[in-house]
Amino acid sequence: MAKRVYLFNEGGKDDRELLGGKGANLCEMTTLGLPVPFGFIITTPTCREFFEAGNQLPSLLEQEYRVALDLVEKKMGARFGDPENPLLFSVRSGASVSMPGMMNTILNLGLNDEIAEGLAKKTDNARFAYDSYRRFIQMFADVVLGVDGKLFEHEIEKYKAAHNKVLDVDMTAEDWQSIIVIYKTLANFPQDPFVQLKLAVEAVFLSWYTPRANVYREMNNIPDTLGTAVSVQAMVFGNFGDDSGSGVAFTRNPSTGEHAFFGEYLFNAAGEDVVAGTRTPLPVEALNERMPEVYKELYATQALLEKHYRDMQDMEFTVQQGKFYMLQTRSGKRTGRASIKIAVDMVNEGLITESEALMRVSPEHVEAFLHPMVDPAAKTSIVANGLPASPGGATGSVVFSAEEAVEVARDGTAVVLVRRETTPEDIHGMKVAEGILTELGGMTSHAAVVARGMGVCAITGCGSLTINYQQGTAVTAEGVVIKRGDIITLDGTAGEVMLGDIPKTEASSSDDFQILLSWADKHRKLKVRANAETPEDAAKARELGAEGIGLCRTEHMFFAADRIDKMRGMILSETKEERLKYLDMLFEFQRDDILELFKVMDGLPVTVRLLDPPLHEFLPHTPEEMSALAKRIGKPVETIKAMTENLHEVNPMLGFRGCRLSVVYPEITEMQVRAIISAAVDATEQGYRPFPEIMIPLVVNVREIRMLNEIIDKGIQEVLKEKAISIPYKVGTMMETPRACLGADRLAGEVEFMSFGTNDLTQMTYGFSRDDVGKFLPQYLDKKLVESDPFVSLDQRAVGKLMEMAVTESRGRKKGIKYGICGEHGGDPRSIQFCHDLGLDYVSCSPFRVPVARIAAAQANVGGALSD
Ligand code: PEP
Ligand code: MG
């Protein structure tokens, strides 16, 4: 039978899956000889057993953990359930992947009437003993017995009001005893410590399925099947008096990444007070002033842990009567900026390798790094200041609850969530908010940690605001009233709150970012190109590291005011002569536009796709527009109407588009080819090095390609002969239809490259219209009929299978054939991993995704190597 219970000296940091992250690290710290209060861990497989048995603990479990408990008692020199010398426990959750604050915790377990009295005697601190007892009843009733925690808070408020008390520190031991009497009327609270322990273990397992944990797992793609471990650890007390306290610290600054120890501390407080953010903590240096020996130990411990784990650590510690204890360590959540700085610094410090540094940065972090910032020049008067908890700039309409945030954001309205503090229950509101602002809490409060992890701009500890939920107002120290629905801007980098919509500058860059990207380039196999049509987009793409254009959608080049009528005239031509006249005009534009792209992408390939969309997309829709067009191009409006109707299709995406246009109107293709090659000639003559690649869209069989190739070759040769020049070029096809993929072996002999157009390929594989999918896909996602939106992240099972088949069967049929992807998936990290594994040559994505794609491509390459 598998062992279900492990003592802290029986595991290590590599046992995450078995003992959960928290448990594994408690074991590791114990083995390192750090002052960790002793305890034991009930494993994650036990949690799965519990659920499989219909929420029943295995029958032998209690026997097993009682053996461990005896050993903990010996080590701690105190006994569970013994009023003379009581041992109390914290009972905490901890899954193999970090889910901060999402599951339940119970502290001070093991107290009852008799033991509280004993604790009072033993510690000679009745106030502390009864405060601990009432905290325990409150937490136990809330978490285990399901009694609303607010009822208890309400009783305390009532009691304080009736007895002229304001703060908790005003409460005496007798006051807490009175509160305990009231509490016991609210909950059927078990006096037997062993019953408490058993119920607490069950409650922690059950908390795996609390709504907030479910939302968090869904957001972070964490499988439901993992389950949580339970750690049962001897309690130490930070609320014992002024020589006690609790703190949270990071080995480096989690916001900026700066290599400086960073932490927060509350004197005479339990750990939950720091995390909950109900009091704003002091910088950890305050501990150095009052208890330098303890600070020294803390400082040495953090340095040791970072070196040992080779990553930035987020730690919880407690001081009880001047003695220092470590309660937790884990890899710290960090902002995008910090993650990049820390990764680069740690390579420079010789702590990690370049490959490891690349794996430490998530694609989301790179994106967050590219976030907009409030323009310093545009800042107007700042109405409140708080802590810069999560960087970036955000503007939105003020809401005061998570529910309101979801409601208002539903139609795409940007919201800023304003709360006194946030709790894990607010996660759904935080997820939709552009920015988060809290009155209370420090840099390590729930709001700060969660916002940073999500890359959402946030300000915490904005104590100058007075928030009134009922009235829907937040009043600043100067009396400025911010009302529900008002537009405000947060600068999460500076911690400043401003009224109105303040302009933001484009995302910035840093030397560290460039260094990391250069490592990514060194460690990746996939090339990264961009999808771009305008010289501006192409220039941006190149600046962000694009190695060419993987898709230039030529149709986008005909919509400008000076060319759309010529396009329409061409489409509405009644004879070939008429069409040729318009095509001659379009030729000039096409050539000049493409010339600009060749210039920007000097020395790099530019893939120009032949006209693709259904022609009616270019035509006017209303009678007024048609009449106006009739006048401009000198055609009777009736003719225009009739021809437009004629072009109308029942299923345009499956209709007259792609290379089918070239089959019916070869003259359009001739014009485009002439324009592309003429532009290449012009570019060459001007001293540039163009590499045109002509791409045929929506192919289904080899005969289409042969026919198109003939038109294309003829066009190219005519231009080159006329100019007596030779230019390198390629002709290839998009792979967008299932039939093209299934028949790739035959297509291969006729092309020099294949580029997967996974937008259409997904549409045609699923039979889901990419333009109408919004009507039903949300339901599919909700009901888990699909894992994720297949238009965002490649469906590897079926669409991926078609790609794999196409590559496998065509590879080697023609020497030097290149494979790429230019659908939206080309910028999606998970899909990039797939493309790497498939051995494609390049991905092509929108310009702003290029840095993400560079990192993802490197991760795809080094990730496998590291885990081998
Ligand atoms: C595709 O289908 O994936 C593609 C890139 O082409 P478009 O999106 O223009 O149809
Ligand atoms: Mg397409």
Automatic annotation (TrEMBL):
Any Pfam family hit: PPDK_N
Domain Pyruvate phosphate dikinase AMP/ATP-binding: 58-281, 296-348
One Gene Ontology term of the molecular function aspect: ATP binding
InterPro entries given in the database record: ATP_grasp_subdomain_1 (IPR013815), PEP-util_enz_mobile_dom (IPR008279), PEP_util_AS (IPR018274), PEP_util_C (IPR000121), PEP_util_CS (IPR023151), Phosphohistidine_dom_sf (IPR036637), PPDK_AMP/ATP-bd (IPR002192), Pyruvate_phosphate_dikinase (IPR010121)
Active site: 446, 822
Cofactor or coenzyme needed: Mg(2+)
Keywords: ATP-binding, Kinase, Magnesium, Metal-binding, Nucleotide-binding, Pyruvate, Transferase
Keyword ATP-binding: yes
Residues involved in Mg(2+) binding: 736, 760
Protein name: Pyruvate, phosphate dikinase
First-tier enzyme category under EC: transferase
SUPFAM superfamilies: Glutathione synthetase ATP-binding domain-like (SSF56059), Phosphoenolpyruvate/pyruvate domain (SSF51621), Phosphohistidine domain (SSF52009)
Gene3D superfamilies noted in UniProt: 1.20.80.30, ATP-grasp fold, A domain, ATP-grasp fold, B domain, Phosphoenolpyruvate-binding domains, Phosphohistidine domain, Pyruvate Phosphate Dikinase, domain 2
EC number, as in UniProt: 2.7.9.1
Domain of life: Bacteria
Keyword flag Hydrolase: no
Binding positions for substrate per the UniProt entry: 553, 609, 736, 757-760
Function noted in UniProt: Catalyzes the reversible phosphorylation of pyruvate and phosphate.
UniProt record similarity statement: Belongs to the PEP-utilizing enzyme family.
